[in-house]
Amino acid sequence: MKEMAKFLTSKEENYAQWYNDLVIKAGLAENSVVRGCMVIKPYGYALWEKIQQQLDTMFKETGHSNVYFPLLIPKSFFSKEASHVEGFAKECAVVTHYRLKNDPEGNGVTVDPEARLEEEYVIRPTSETIIWHTYKNWIQSYRDLPILCNQWANVMRWEMRTRLFLRTAEFLWQEGHTAHATREEAVEEADRMIKVYAEFAEKWMAMPVVVGHKSESERFAGALDTLTIEALMQDGKALQAGTSHFLGQNFARAFDVTFASREGTREQVWSTSWGVSTRLIGALIMAHSDDNGLVLPPRLAPLQVVIVPIYKGNDGLERIRARANAIMKDLREVGVSAQFDDRDTQKPGWKFADYELKGVPVRLAMGERDLEHDTIEVFRRDTLAKETLPVAGIARHVVGLLDEIQENIYLKASRLRDAMTTRVDSYDEFKRLLDEKGGFFLCHWDGTAETEALVKEETKATIRCIPLDATAEEGRCMVTGKPSSQRVLFARAY
Prior knowledge:
Layout (H helix, E strand, L loop, with lengths): L1 H4 L9 H11 L3 E3 L6 E3 L1 H20 L3 E3 L4 E3 L7 H7 L4 E5 L2 E3 L6 E3 L4 E8 L4 H11 L8 E10 L13 E11 L2 H21 L6 E4 L11 E8 L5 E11 L1 H5 L3 E3 L5 E3 L1 E8 L1 H10 L16 E6 L3 H20 L4 E3 L7 H10 L4 E6 H6 L1 E6 L5 E5 L3 H26 L1 E4 L2 H10 L3 E5 L4 H11 L2 E6 L7 E2 L6 E2 L2 E5 L3
Parallel strand pairs: 3-9, 17-18, 17-19, 22-23
Antiparallel strand pairs: 1-2, 4-8, 5-8, 6-7, 9-10, 10-16, 11-12, 11-24, 12-13, 13-16, 14-15, 19-20, 20-21, 23-27, 24-27, 25-26
């Protein structure tokens, strides 16, 4: 076990290296031969599937249906909404040809110059343009509204500096795109979906978040308002975990999407979009894990319980297996995923360390002596504590323990966030504590883009959000001394 622990750099020693070591050693993902892209390995994809399944259920409970739109978007579509193209132009990958041919020099294949597309395609960085081009055909009357669609897809944004899960050129996500008859309905939709994300983050990811509005300079390209959930990682940096955008009528105007109202007038449609991505896996890692490996909340863990046998001969293994099968049957009947690890290629100590590395919430160990005494060892990943308990009623105990672990992980993250959230009134104090302590800072801001840009340039901290639950508080901007009516949330961020 000590040998396996050496695979991970300590968080205190080098947080970035610890994160990278953990993603790779826990078998979540690895870098691809394609620059800036990643290979999501089976264990990492199983984690994404758990996230996807729960969110998909929540989306459908709020009335949304899944759809799929093309990966390739005509370049001309991006010219129709000015702020949208400006926001994504530098990140777009462009398809210019549709055919290869053998190189006449004998050097493999080359692009056929005669196969140039009449119009280039952009590999989707996001799908607003092609979706609103399509919605024009779907929407004729108020009876066609609202449209509540979601798409599970991959997107590409040409990133120069990449990090597995947190920022890659290609990543997986979901993007909701809705159309409404009134401004009020669209605003309500954007608010509803950011609350869905916040509920998911806190109840399933065990990760406390701050919900708020982005400042104008931080909004999604083409949005009138962007709502966000901001989480704090263990190194004191913020992570934007999900966003929901009120798009107004910008895309309806750009693609001429109108409808006949109840009153018989032609009106432009109101819209929203919202999304989360595989970045959530990075958030899970950095919010909870430790120097022994992943710490996964039980509700999202691909495997919740593992049973490791400790035996000498095949007869002992089979007797333990019979007892383990009964326990697993009881666990599975109440919806708990469980596995019996009878591999003879690794010793129990190696297995213990491997399951700690992978963040399996509960490990049960049973030896031949346990069979004699009708006991079993129970280990919980969050605290690394273990105890020996009677086998009778163990499934019921494990169910309760999983709930306790879920709650404990959330409380630990909440305590950290509270301890690293600071109210600051002085710019000098802000800069000092930003370097010494990090975390979230609640500060007065004069509301100008110039002050926001100055803080970012001088400190690399940005306004993460204007919190929804912030109370009115008269004060003075920490930088300019100008009047301010409430505090906003600053932090350095991923």
